[in-house]
Amino acid sequence: MQPKAGPRISQIHITPIAIVDPPLLNAAGLHAPYALRTVVELVTDDGISGISEIPGNRDIDEALAIAKDLLTGLDVFNLNEIRQVLSARFGTETIKRGETPWDQRKLVHIFSAIEVACMDIIGKVTGRPVVDLLGGKMRDRVPFSAYLFYKYEGAGGKLGFGIDPDATGWASARQAAALDPAGVVAQAKAMCAEFGFQSIKLKGGVFEPRQEVDAMFALREAFGPDVPLRVDPNALWKVETAIQYGKEMEPILEYLEDPVRGQENMAEVRKAVKTPLATNMCTTSFEDIPNSIRIGSEDIILSDHHFWGGLRSSMTLAGICETFGRGLSMHSNSHLGISLAAMVHLGAALPQLPYALDTHYPWQSDEIITQGRFQFEDGAVVVPSEPGLGVELDRQALATLHQNYLDCGLTKRDDEVEMQKVQPGWTFQSVRW
Ligand SMILES: O=C([O-])C(=O)C[C@H](O)[C@@H](O)C(=O)[O-]
Ligand SMILES: [Mg+2]
């Protein structure tokens, strides 16, 4: 029997969108009232559509527009060829990941956008969910962790620092300020009550370490020893600070995420502190792995299919982690349901899943898929069983959120600029305490 010719890419639609994001504080500054995402839709010559979502950035969107011409006519099943074509065009980029908690590299984002949309199509053609294309489902539900942020009062979007007085439940709690340990505990209680999360992460690197460590002890006091806790100062601590507070938190932490900057500093802290160290900042690409293994910079890699070049690359990373005794979990950024669907398929396919994954999803209120917002049951999302990603693009919502993008005037994430609007003169420091 002759193999069938695969469907070929005939159209690529790239739509930047802006989604409402509350004033969340982090090491890089403050979230703008809108977070940017880019939605990519591939359409095949026989009219099948596949979608993906990546962090929004005008430079990356422009690179995607160049990729469009290179990819038209290629077989969606031939992901190796697609990768080769993209590597040949963008593989020499000199852009580095940068010092912020997010990633600036174009190639990994483009790979991710194209590969996920192709896998959505392949799933539709074969009648199988994406998790099956990644080797099959290891679990039916994928657990996520509560992701707490210090924040100013405010709802984001058009309301900015204002609030919607008619909001109820988590939609109301999400607007509250959280600027001290009591505020963090109140936020955690509201988020866990709504989503049923069974582990908790605090985004640190905002206040001096004593305050953030006190917040972790307050969470332990409020939730008891059965709820795993993590804190992520996004590499702002000095080695001695990380060792001091890392030791103090040994009895209460599941893992300590990126206390310090760089693999060497992480390795030094790891030798001194018993708690496992996790990273999405020092070992962030395949090129970083050899040194990570050589010097032992972390115990857990927080993968992110948007930054590691897609879902299949993330499976490769899982194999490397298994070989070298690293744990693997997942990092996130402000995102909608297309990204969440991809994260859930990947989470379901990973051979081991010892840690609940990160997600910013509770902080978002918009959605771009026809089924509406994903539901969490006891902190977990049920793996979609429909072909492909199992989500369909809501074209009306896409148009509205694209208009938000045009109106808001943002072209990339810049938390430093947003912070300066509130605290004039504030500057990002790569190591602060
Ligand atoms: O674990 C992390 O480093 C993140 O989740 C990075 C994000 O960019 C986070 O800092 C945020 O949303 O401000
Ligand atoms: Mg992190």
UniProtKB/TrEMBL annotation:
PANTHER family linked to this entry? D-GALACTONATE DEHYDRATASE-RELATED, GLUCARATE DEHYDRATASE
Which Gene3D superfamilies does this entry report, sorted A to Z? Enolase-like C-terminal domain, Enolase-like, N-terminal domain
Query: What protein name does the entry list?
Result: glucarate dehydratase
Q: Which InterPro entries match?
A: DgoD-like, Enolase-like_C_sf, Enolase-like_N, Enolase_C-like, Mandelate_racemase_C, Mandelate_racemase_N_dom
Copy the pathway line from the protein's UniProt record: Carbohydrate acid metabolism; D-glucarate degradation; 2,5-dioxopentanoate from D-glucarate: step 1/2
- The top EC class, named as a word, is lyase
Superkingdom in the source lineage? Bacteria
Q: Which reaction does it catalyse?
A: D-glucarate = 5-dehydro-4-deoxy-D-glucarate + H2O
Look up the EC number in the record and give it. Answer: 4.2.1.40
GO molecular function annotation: glucarate dehydratase activity; racemase and epimerase activity
Pfam families for the chain? MR_MLE_C (PF13378), MR_MLE_N (PF02746)
Which organism encodes this protein? Spirosoma validum
Instruction: List residues of the Mandelate racemase/muconate lactonizing enzyme C-terminal domain.
Output: 181-276
